[in-house]
Amino acid sequence: MIDGTAATVTSDGGYVYETTTPVAFPTYGLNVLSAAQEAINGSYASGYFGLFDPKFNTLYSITNQEGTNCCPLYFAGSAIYANDKIGPFAGGYTETNKSKVVNPRYVSRFYSVEPCAPQNEVLHVGSTYWTAGGGIDSVAVNAGGTTYTDGDILPLTGSVAGTGALVQVTCAVSPGPVTGVTLIAPGKGYDVAESPLTIDGGTGDATIDITVTQANTDPVTGSGGESCCKPFLCGETYNLRLDIKGSPALRYLNHNAYYTASFYTGCCPDSPDDPQIAPVPVDSTLVMIGWADLILRSPIVNPFVEIVIQDQEGVLWYAPGTSAAFLAQVGGDTWNNYVSPGYIEGACAGMILNGAYVDTRFGDCTFQISDFYEKEPVRLYVSEMDLNGVSVFFSPCPRGPGNR
User: Fold this and answer.
1) Binning pLDDT at 50, 70 and 90, where does residue 383 land?
2) DSSP 8-state assignment for residue 34
3) What does the angle CA 117 – CA 403 – CA 263 come to, to the nearest 5 degrees?
4) How far is residue 244's CA from residue 251's CA, in Å, rounded to a whole number?
5) Of 83-97, 334-348, 367-381, where does the model show the most confidence?
6) Most confidently modeled range among 36-50, 114-128, 187-201, 207-221
7) H-helix or E-strand containing 31?
């Protein structure tokens, strides 16, 4: 409803290009459309823009003007924020965003580009479901079994090498057969040829079909495969350098952020048969946890990352302080409760770093230069370093799925 008059607009990907009734459509009508959609889909779920006549500030119908000499126009888009009040009394008009006037003499065509879904930076260090492959991608019920409890988060059995995957079951009748299943943790080392796998619970006879991610070992675009499974020895100090670049880091520090985490694996066990004590491999999960703890203790880099550890058996571990509600949802635990089983031959752990920076800003738009709306994600770079600062590992391995 615009000025008491009902107007139906035709929109393509948020572009409003004409009304189906002969009414003047002002720029604030874009906010009316956006608010109507947000009431259905949630905040920031929609946005609209269009071409407007600068003389009358109303929608310019391209369809009705094809083949004619067009006039100067400007773009207008609906407000980013649903509330633009400066305080409890001033503002509150949810002003639209407008471009400068576009002179058609200097424009040959308009075009649009389909947007990409926003994706934060994700790095995989060491052996994870992405670098090693074998993480479960999707699941589907194969056989329902009996006497399962609705909502239970359960592991899988029936795989030779795959470990760590968790699924949550849905039962129409509880206890009863499984009617639906949701993947909670991907694990690693699974093979699609082993499908279906058994859900461990109830009578143990419900099964699911799986699809899995295989490691891409291409030397240019690959995630590393087995090359990211590095043994760590006792009696050694390992250094991991993390660099964080982008506008958020520059605004926070006036320079890009970097930090080197140094973790000592501990003394080697005494050997009565070898007086010189030869180094032996240790559980690489402890190294990843050590690095993660140091990174999260650093005030320079900890505002920019969230870290998840995938141990050598494929189980995901979360940072201390993670909310109990979230841990219950994913059937997980924090890594300060990790109990090492010792080194497992051929098994390696990994660390998943998620770029997770949200700029500090006012709760509502103020139209002041001190307010800021950050749109650039941080970029993460990580590599193991030797004592001379030379990269010695992980350079081919870190990029995760969906990076931009």
Assistant:
1) confident
2) H
3) 140
4) 12
5) 334-348
6) 187-201
7) helix 28-41
- The domains of the chain are located at 9-106, 134-213, 225-393
Classify 240 as helix, strand or coil.
Answer: strand
Q: Which of 90, 66, 64, 94 is nearest to 80 (CA)?
A: 94
- At 30 the pLDDT is 87
Q: Where are the beta strands (DSSP E) in 252-326?
A: 257-264, 281-282, 305-310, 316-318
Q: What is the C-alpha separation between 129 and 316, in angstroms, rounded?
A: 10
Whole-number Å distance between alpha carbons of 80 and 83: 9
For 107-122, b/e burial (b = at least 16 CB within 10 A) is eeeeeeeeeeeeebbb
Q: Which two tokens stand for residue 166?
A: 């968790």
Amino acid identity for residue 363 in this structure:
G
Q: How many CB atoms lie within 10 A of CB 321?
A: 8
Answer whether the bond into residue 231 is a cis peptide, omega within 30°: no
CB 99 within 8 A of CB 262: no
> What six digits make up the tokens of 382?
């990580």
